[in-house]
């Protein structure tokens, strides 16, 4: 199980993150959504990437496309051993309900799905019990670290959906034309 020690953060507790609104209202011109924002979301996402690397994960540096009908961009995707993890970040002003819907979409493609909430009262959300029932993890980001509130449960994924995600990692990992599996890449360090 992942030890949730605190990680240093360079971002404050800004609460006016409009990431979801921007994601839905702007055309991305072919770029992945994370390339379009220079908001507190980008800072928090960077904190999460650094934390995951320090905890033994191999995160993808960009948002990852997830083959689902509605919520298709995962804020942070990472590999750890043979498993793929999806992390959905929600600021204090974001909707936890929407986060739950996004996690449900990601569950087809990722072995572990975690909502990372920049909220002090995420446990009081009416959706909190739904995260637990569905086996989604819930982490809190308080500006100075990440803390596990609910550990995620490993799930079986649809092979074709996982394949779409794996290809995005392979594309990134194989600049010299070497085709590597996720497990080979994770072991490479």
Give a verbal description of the structure.
This protein has 189 residues and is α/β, with parallel strands linked by helices. The chain has one domain. Helix content is 32%, strand content 19%. The strands form two sheets. A six-stranded mixed sheet has the order 1-4-5-6-7-8, with helices on both faces. The chain has a two-stranded antiparallel ribbon with strand order 2-3. The protein is globular and about 40 Å long. The N terminus is likely disordered.
Global shape: globular
Largest sheet: 6 strands, mixed
- Structural class, please? alpha/beta
Question: How would you write the strand order of the largest sheet?
Answer: 1-4-5-6-7-8
Query: Stretches where pLDDT falls below 50 for ≥5 residues?
Result: 1-38
- Any idea how many domains? 1
Number of strands: 8
Summed up, the helix count is 6
Question: Would you summarize the structure shown here?
Answer:
The chain has 189 residues and is an alpha/beta fold. It has one domain (19-187).
Topology:
Elements lengths: L18 H7 L14 H15 L3 E2 L4 E2 L7 E2 L1 E5 L2 E8 L5 H11 L5 E6 L10 H7 L2 E5 L4 E5 L8 H15 L8 H6 L2
